[in-house]
Amino acid sequence: MQAEPVPIRRYLTSAVLALAALLFVLVLVRPLISSFADEPDDTALSVTTTASVTAGPVLVEVLLNQRHGLPGEVPDGDHARLVVAVAPDLGTGFSVVDAWSPVNDCPVALGPDRLVDCAGAAWTYAGIAIDPVNPNLVRFPAHAAAATVIADFTRTLNG
To answer: What is the pTM assigned to this prediction?
Structure first.
């Protein structure tokens, strides 16, 4: 006795039902699940990898989820872009500071041993003013996790 071949219609029906179930999940269920998720915020934003900072300070442009009115912040739709200086720090592991001069209202660049603005005002890589007359740069809490520098852009370490 020979086994009866399975009709192709059964395979086609199964494939169509599987495709319909997949479309149902993608179109209806996934957005429903996302609607219950918390809005992304800037309390634990990945800035850069720890490996990129071990050789020395770097400037990194970060896309913030919200606008915070920080010096040098550039609106980008509902978001904002901010350039920060990230450097190894003996006390806390890493320092993350706003790379915008509070003295001359211009970007801060990496110097050989300090951060320098367009008019020569200078800060340490941790954002401390070299000239005590000048204010410190805006500093953010930061830590390392899973080989990544994570910063909280919702609060600052400035007094």
So the answer is: 0.75
